[in-house]
């Protein structure tokens, strides 16, 4: 009984996490009901006969969660069926020439060789990524046509069968495409777009938490391990395969919303890869923080040095967090990024930290803090790269010019050329 | 022309990288040829009729690269067909009760609801992992039976059709299983086993390269970035999804080689997760090394301190590399690990490094080196965890006792209880 309640709660949560899943389930039901109308409407049934089961089969197999997935599978299925059907009929004509005894043998050889070659082609990464399903359907259709043509003597009958089957498959694909692109469509491209932005936001919230809770005044009794911001970047670490499959599907999608047919999906993968890189550095910083927590080295240091280092670190984290949030907003709103107004502050804080750490000699009790600061700089080093890749994305995807007012910045932007001065301003 | 040559080279490389791919392609061809014999042997064809196409269809769709994949798909297909067929016939019987006009309507409602519910169930992670294909086939078969039963009036005819279809599917599945488990089988479990071991070896070769080329005497004119050992651990970073899918398939595989039916595949995922953790720390160390290379801080240090730190780091890296290699060998040979003989040396070197770094004050020019040493310690911290998880694996999987002679070790193992002494020995 408890298990049933647990399952019900789980199911409810899955639906609540993303209500599009519920919608998708009903869409599949709808598409299937639509396609089974063929059976119930007598004139249609009479013209297609039992081939109508191919329409049902197609709907079940082709209908995917994202519009790109459905389109990719639908087109793969349609073209693979056409190509393999034509090749199958051709193979049948060649086999006939070899006489009644040789025919099945020759057909068997054809099927064997084609199936082996096509199966091998699925190991080629480019084919695997975009045409895997097409190759399966190619093997399937070729085998079916080549094998069953042996039993269907009449050429006219064969052609009619081929026509019926192809048109039912086309109808199935059409029903799927209509349902998945017109009724609450789930675009893989949009999901990828949002995923990249939300990954940047996750990195930002780690840095924000670090700045405010770890370096900030709030450092208190709780252990660091219990803070949830420390795990914010966690899902970024393993985002690679999900992003790649979304990018693969997005390429199939037609123009929708702000995304054209040739939207630079590959650039999203670049931004994603750099975000992962940044998350790796965060992981190193995080494990340093949690493993050195008990020693509480900070507390033993001379107060003024401690204060200077932590306040610089705090500034760095918070400015970086803001920069990442801006970049995420750039992606979300699809506006060209304003010249990153946090860059100056970040560069200044980094320089200041270097100056602080290059004092003639460092008390060894401060080493842990110095290491932590250095790990933080490594995280910070990733930000300009991410910013550059987002700018490239903005260019490639022709984000619209940002016309909104700049928010007030602490430092006048004319000082951009003389970063040395900025340090003085900040001290 | 150049493109064709390029493609040919690529195809050749894919085949050479893993010759099992070529074998698999021919196995698919063979299975298809075997199953199409139904068409050519008249008595068989006469008893099954056109239902024989379902055997061909099954082979094309069920045959997977790994034995576990084929088994999982085959069993999913068989049981889903049985269950959905029975439910479909039941639904038909209920629908009949509602009269000739109500029947198609009621059947449509059934199809709609069942398809929606089953589609939704695919979002539950446990079902997605193991029964995704089964759910698809369930929807497919239920729809086909429910929809087409409306046109097949005769109950006897319906039963015969169901029997024919089920038996052809079972034959297709049987052909697939026989080909994929008896002819050069590719076991997902074995692949997972080897992948986990080779990941540990990759981590080991990074540390070995670090010890010998970076800390060793060979530090010379070449830039660090060009060294290939620095990228050895790279494929470990993104190994998660591949490992999880292999572990999912491995669970379906019957006893083979040293792997029983209930082999602890989940423990491999744990070892894999810890290896990834270690690779993240390596990434942090690596980016520190490459980004601070130009400053060449080492060169400016007082020679004796520099020598002491680098030689300790060298020792740590090399001992850790040996420990990882031993763990990989433990997995490969499936023998219980001897009490890790490198643990002592690693612990000693770590302590020594701590002593070196806790001198009263550190010249700030040494800071980069200190940070690097500390990053290395973070990598080293992962090793005991990996060792523990491998030991747990050895216990769970009942690895055989190691009876081989221990290789000569530098330090006598009696010193294990007094690690303090070891430091003296090493100095």
UniProtKB/TrEMBL annotation, chains A, B:
Membrane as UniProt keyword: yes
Membrane topology: Multi-pass membrane protein
Compartments, as annotated in UniProt: Membrane
Domain of life per record: Eukaryota
Segments passing through the bilayer: 21-41, 47-67, 79-99, 105-124, 131-149, 169-188
Record keywords: Ion channel, Ion transport, Membrane, Transmembrane, Transmembrane helix, Transport
Gene Ontology terms describing biological process: malate transport; monoatomic ion transmembrane transport
One cellular component (GO) term of this entry: membrane
Cross-referenced Pfam families: ALMT
Protein family according to the UniProt entry: Belongs to the aromatic acid exporter (TC 2.A.85) family.
Designated name of the protein: Aluminum-activated malate transporter 1-like
Record gene name: LOC105038078
């Amino acid at each position: 009984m408890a298990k049933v309640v647990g399952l019900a709660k789980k199911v409810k949560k899955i639906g609540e996490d993303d209500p599009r899943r519920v919608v998708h389930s009903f869409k599949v039901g709808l598409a299937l009901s639509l396609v089974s109308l063929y059976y119930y409407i007598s004139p249609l049934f009479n013209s297609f006969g039992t081939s109508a089961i191919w329409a049902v089969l197609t709907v079940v197999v082709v209908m995917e969660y994202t519009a790109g997935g459905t389109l990719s599978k639908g087109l793969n299925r349609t073209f693979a069926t056409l190509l393999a059907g034509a090749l199958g009929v051709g193979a049948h004509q060649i086999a006939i020439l070899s006489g009644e005894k040789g025919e099945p043998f020759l057909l068997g050889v054809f099927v064997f060789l084609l199936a082996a070659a096509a199966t091998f082609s699925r190991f080629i990464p480019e084919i695997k990524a975009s045409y895997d399903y097409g190759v399966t359907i190619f093997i399937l259709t070729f085998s079916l046509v080549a094998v069953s043509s042996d039993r269907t003597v009449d050429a006219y009958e064969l052609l009619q069968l081929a026509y019926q089957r192809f048109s039912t498959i086309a109808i199935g694909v059409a029903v799927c495409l209509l349902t998945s692109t017109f009724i609450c469509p789930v675009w893989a491209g949009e999901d990828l777009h949002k995923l990249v932005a939300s990954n940047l936001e996750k990195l930002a919230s780690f840095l924000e938490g670090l700045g405010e809770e770890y370096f900030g005044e709030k450092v208190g009794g709780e252990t660091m391990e219990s803070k949830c911001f420390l795990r914010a970047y966690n899902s970024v670490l393993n985002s690679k395969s999900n992003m790649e499959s979304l990018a693969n599907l997005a390429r199939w999608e037609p123009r929708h919303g702000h995304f054209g047919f040739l939207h630079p999906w590959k650039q999203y993968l670049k931004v994603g890869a750099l975000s992962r890189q940044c998350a790796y550095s965060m992981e190193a910083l995080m494990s340093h923080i949690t493993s050195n927590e008990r020693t509480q080295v900070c507390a033993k240091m001379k107060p003024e040095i401690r204060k200077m280092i932590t306040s610089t670190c705090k500034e760095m984290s918070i400015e970086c967090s803001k920069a990442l949030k801006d970049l995420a907003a750039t992606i979300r709103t699809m506006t060209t990024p304003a010249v990153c107004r946090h860059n100056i502050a970040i560069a200044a804080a980094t320089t200041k930290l270097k100056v602080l750490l290059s004092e003639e000699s460092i008390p060894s009790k401060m080493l842990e803090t110095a290491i932590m600061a250095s790990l933080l700089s490594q995280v910070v080093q990733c930000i300009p790269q991410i910013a550059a890749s987002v700018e490239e994305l903005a260019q490639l995807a022709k984000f619209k010019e940002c016309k909104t007012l700049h928010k007030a910045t602490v430092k006048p932007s004319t000082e951009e050329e003389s970063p040395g001065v900025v340090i003085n301003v900040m001290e």
